[in-house]
Structure formats: structure tokens, C-alpha cells
Automatic annotation (TrEMBL):
<dbReference type="InterPro" id="IPR036163">
    <property type="entry name" value="HMA_dom_sf"/>
</dbReference>
<protein>
    <recommendedName>
        <fullName>HMA domain-containing protein</fullName>
    </recommendedName>
</protein>
<feature type="domain" description="HMA">
    <location>
        <begin position="34"/>
        <end position="98"/>
    </location>
</feature>
<dbReference type="Pfam" id="PF00403">
    <property type="entry name" value="HMA"/>
</dbReference>
<dbReference type="GO" id="GO:0046872">
    <property type="term" value="F:metal ion binding"/>
</dbReference>
<dbReference type="InterPro" id="IPR006121">
    <property type="entry name" value="HMA_dom"/>
</dbReference>
<keyword id="KW-0479">Metal-binding</keyword>
């Protein structure tokens, strides 16, 4: 009877539909990468810290949660979508939250550029003006007069020795 059961499964329509559904489910299932998500959210007390931690702890595929009350920073490590984490924190806590906008001043190419200094930034951190175009100021724009002066003292200029 084993062979008859096998043939019955082959010619049974429900078997093929089930196999097709399983293949579609595997294609739809996205494999996410391990990500570190940093969020800035204002926390004043231990109750706020606990509420923020619990809002993210219950999410699926979150492996680690760190809360730094002094810097108002939440760090989430896991296989999750950053937008969903931010939305979840805003919804569960009722507080304004945003992605961490600061970088250590050691790795920013222009830490003293206009717009990079922020009074609310933690010590040793500045706003990244390269990726934040609204705060870039005059960093990326060089007018024609500045370009001429830079070129006059450049090594590419053959007559630079005459000027000096």
C-alpha cells in the first residue's frame, strides 16, 4: 500500500497546493541582517528608562537593549527594521524620538564646520553635517574667489613659486 499512497499524493491537488504555498512563504520571508540601531529619546527618571526598555524588549528578533539615561540614548541590537523600532518606541512611550544624530568628533571630517556644533550634543560628540544637509551651512559651497586663491597656492599650479 505504500506505493499507492505515494501515487495518490503525487496526483492529489491539495498536496501540490500545499507545496506551492510553502515555497511562496520561503520567498516572502526576508532574512534581515544584524543591525545596531541608536535612538535619541528624552528620559528623565528610572520610570522613563523602564518604559523605553520594555517597549523594545518585547519585539521579536531583538537580541540586546542598552539604555543610557545620561545621554538620552537607546541602543537596540537585533534582526529588526530600524523604522519599525523607532515607530514602536514612539507609540509605546508617547515621547518624541529620533535616530541618533551625533557622531564622535574624532571621526567627523569637519568637526568645527558651521552647523556641526550642537549645545544638546553629549560631550565629545558633534552633529554629522555631511549626512545632515539641513545643518551643512556653507561647508560644501566654495565660491569662485576662494577657488582661485586655493588654486594659486596649489602644487598643481606651475607658477605658484612666483607668487610666493
Amino acid at each position: 500500500m505504500g506505493a499507492l499512497d505515494h501515487f495518490y499524493e503525487i496526483f492529489d491537488l491539495s498536496y501540490w497546493l500545499r507545496v506551492r504555498r510553502q515555497k511562496k512563504a520561503l520567498k516572502k520571508k526576508k532574512l534581515r541582517q544584524l543591525q545596531t540601531i541608536e535612538i535619541r529619546i528624552k528620559m528623565d527618571c528610572e520610570g522613563c528608562e523602564r518604559r523605553v526598555r520594555q517597549s523594545v524588549d518585547t519585539m521579536k528578533r531583538v537580541t540586546k537593549v542598552e539604555v543610557n539615561t545620561k545621554q538620552h540614548k537607546l541602543t537596540v541590537i537585533g534582526y529588526v527594521d530600524p523604522e519599525k523600532v523607532l515607530k514602536r518606541v514612539k507609540a509605546k512611550t508617547g515621547k518624541a524620538a529620533q535616530f541618533w544624530p551625533y557622531l564622535p568628533y574624532d571621526i567627523v571630517p569637519h568637526p568645527y564646520a558651521p552647523g556641526s556644533y550642537d549645545k544638546k550634543a553629549p560631550s565629545g560628540h558633534v552633529r554629522n553635517v555631511v549626512t545632515d544637509p539641513s545643518k551643512a551651512g556653507d561647508l560644501a559651497r566654495v565660491n569662485s574667489m576662494e577657488a582661485r586663491i586655493i588654486f594659486a597656492f596649489s602644487e598643481d599650479n606651475a607658477h605658484a613659486c612666483v607668487i610666493m
